[in-house]
Amino acid sequence: MALIIIHAFIKIDPKHREEFLEQAKEVIAGSQAEEGNISYQLYEEVEQSNTFVMLEKWKDEAAIEEHGQTPHFINFIKGTKGYQLEPLRVEKYEA
Fold it and tell me: For 71-78, which contacts have Cβ atoms below 8 Å and span 24 or more sequence positions?
């Protein structure tokens, strides 16, 4: 069984930084509590303010599918869509 790693790149309008970070805290806490989650962390690029990457590790595809149906994930996606300066970019890897 392969470990699934996701990098989700998010560029946020600086006017909505604080709202984004509050919503990020909620999705991080909810995601870390999920049974299939190994880790879920948010980092900001040093040289590009308001450009973030969510680093996620999941035990399998089923865990990712379940994650996509959780209220905290759905609320995060809907709530932050208007803050994004660029479309969300997602990279997925198996290890």
Answer: 71/30, 72/26, 72/27, 72/29, 72/30, 72/31, 73/27, 73/30, 73/31, 75/23, 75/26, 75/27, 76/23, 76/24, 76/26, 76/27
Q: Cβ–Cβ contacts within 10 Å for residue 40, how many?
A: 20
Whether residue 2 has pLDDT greater than 90: no
For residue 9, which phi and psi values (nearest 5 degrees)?
-95, 130
In this prediction the pTM is 0.93
Rounded CA gap, 19 and 83, in Å? 9
Please list the alpha-helical segments (H only) found in 1-95: 17-32, 61-67, 71-80
